Hints:
By secondary structure, the protein is mostly helical. It has 9 helices and no strands. The protein has helices spanning 17-36, 54-75, 78-108, 122-129, 131-143, 151-176, 182-186, 189-218, 221-229. Helix 1 runs antiparallel to helix 5 (131-143). The two termini are 34 Å apart.
Amino acid sequence: xxxxxxxxxxxxxxxxxxxxxxxxxxxxxxxxxxxxxxxxxxxxxxxxxxxxxxxxxxxxxxxxxxxxxxxxxxxxxxxxxxxxxxxxxxxxxxxxxxxxxxxxxxxxxxxxxxxxxxxxxxxxxxxxxxxxxxxxxxxxxxxxxxxxxxxxxxxxxxxxxxxxxxxxxxxxxxxxxxxxxxxxxxxxxxxxxxxxxxxxxxxxxxxxxxxxxxxxxxxxxxxxxxxxxxxxxxxxxxx
Length: 239
């Protein structure tokens, strides 16, 4: 078995629990994609297809992250393990953001997310909008070394991802004449800009929350302090 990071709770890469978790995640994500490609909706034939949805982009990144993780476990490769951890810095906060936004808006009015004639049953809905965040959070908290990313780099990464997605959505709108999420069509341009800026802030917050939770679960006070201090530009006391 490969040696794991001294601050990491469980062994990974490993052909035991780590491999089982990553294979379970891959199976879950593939099941969601299988459902997606058998789900006949007008979106399927449009420009950009289902990849107009942030949910599907996030699911693709989660699948890539866990596939690399499973390969690292099977081969005990430190390089693949490092790549999995790099991908996780993007995919885990993104999936937490997707879950927060989706279920938050869903609780207010689900027609803002889907037209009335296009609805999901609970199981595929959970697979798309909750399972990826749960799998990635468990992987981070128990099977990964601590993240070293700080508040402002996390914010910059979140802004790049958020506004890149906005550009992609607007390009798809120019080809299709409609937005993937009905809420985008209700909002004006500046309101959509505020929504994406808010989303970037939430994703940054999710990065710091995951980092704080890592410190809490693994008993590392330094990472709890960094997660709280970094977003406002304060140096942690432990430094």
